[in-house]
Specification:
Layout: H1 3-34, E1 42-50, E2 60-63, E3 67-69, E4 73-82, E5 90-99, E6 104-106, E7 111-115, E8 126-133, E9 138-147, E10 149-159
Antiparallel strand pairs: 1-10, 2-9, 3-9, 4-8, 4-10, 5-6, 5-7, 5-9
Amino acid sequence: MNTRQKILSSIGVLAIIIVVVIVLSQTTTIDLALTPKPKPRWQKVMVFEGGQSELNVTYKIENSETFYIPGDEWRIRYECSSLTYPESIPAMFALVVFSENNTVVETKKVAYIGNTNILSEEYFGTKSGEVSVDIGRGNYYLGIFTLNIESWHIIVEAFY
């Protein structure tokens, strides 16, 4: 084999190697591009529960654990039930969102006031609902204010 044939042969082998590398790199890129990303959905971040079994004359304030919201959109779902008592004793449930540094960042309209008398028009009973929170990602905690609430259940969810 002369020098010219050796050079042409080497160029041919090099060209084949380059083609194989290009094909393999394109295949990997295509495979990664075809991998579907999970669709965003509501995901549970934290659950809090509490309550009391006896009537009180002073309200109770509880702070939840600090939780991280990984998305820009989140919500609070809640349900609470008052104690039942034959007299009209006040009952209250309210939530406040605090940032990690103890600043009130959201006072959503989660506040109910009523009483414990089932025969009264102002009977508290059971309340439930959901509120959107528009303050984005970060670390937060809830201030939960209760008075004569037998049980409460709160679920924090983020959309991501």
